[in-house]
Amino acid sequence: MSETVDILHRIGVTATPEAVYEALTTVEGLAGWWTEDTDGDPAPGGVVRFRFPPGGFDMKVLEARPAEHVRWEVVAGPEEWIGTQVVFELGQEDDCTIVLFRHEGWREPVEFMHHCSTKWAIYLMSLKKLAETGEGEPSPRDVRISNWH
After folding, report:
1. What is d(CA 136, CA 32) in angstroms, rounded to the nearest whole number?
2. C-alpha separations of 54 from 38, 114, 138, 139, 140 in Å
3. Boundaries of each Activator of Hsp90 ATPase homologue 1/2-like C-terminal domain copy (predicted)?
4. Quick one: which of 52, 67, 68, 125 is 20 to 30 A from 15 by CA?
5. CA–CA gap between residue 5 and residue 140 (Å, rounded)
6. CA angle 7-13-18, nearest 5°?
7. pLDDT the model gives residue 146
């Protein structure tokens, strides 16, 4: 079996783990930091649909432990994303919630993965802003970095 590669990020959010968890597990929260065009069932076993100007993704919610952990599996979207998993681990450090993010299981580090790594960082900063101020910068109001958006 060949090894896979992962996108990894870490951010500190001046908000409670419960507030960050809510932003990861409600349609309103997800639409507040990732893309305004979000719908579906964010409960474990449900599928959430995220749409962006160039396309979108459907994520099956595999796990959701309140204020601790969220795991999705990509079930529809770009070929490179199908079967990969997106994981958010939440921990407390002083007055911060530490978010350890992984987009794991990429078959190879193609150019699109480089693009997605940068975009995930932008969206994680949007998550931070949403949790701290009540206002994120989801698509289509996010920073555009290329013609892939």
Report:
1. 6
2. 14, 17, 14, 11, 11
3. 15-132
4. 52
5. 28
6. 100
7. 86
Spatial distance between the Cα atoms of 63 and 24, rounded to a whole number of angstroms: 12
Residues in the chain: 149
- Please give the Cα distance from 63 to 102 (Å, whole number): 14
Q: Which of the four CATH numbers 3.30.365.10, 3.30.530.20, 3.50.30.10, 3.30.450.20 does domain 5-133 have?
A: 3.30.530.20
Query: pLDDT tens digits for the chain (149 residues)?
Result: 569 999 999 999 999 999 999 999 999 999 999 999 999 999 999 999 999 988 999 999 999 999 999 999 999 999 999 999 999 999 999 999 999 999 999 999 999 999 999 999 999 999 999 999 999 999 999 999 987 77
Contact 124, 8 (CB under 8 A): no
What residue segments make up the domains of the chain, in order of their start? 5-133
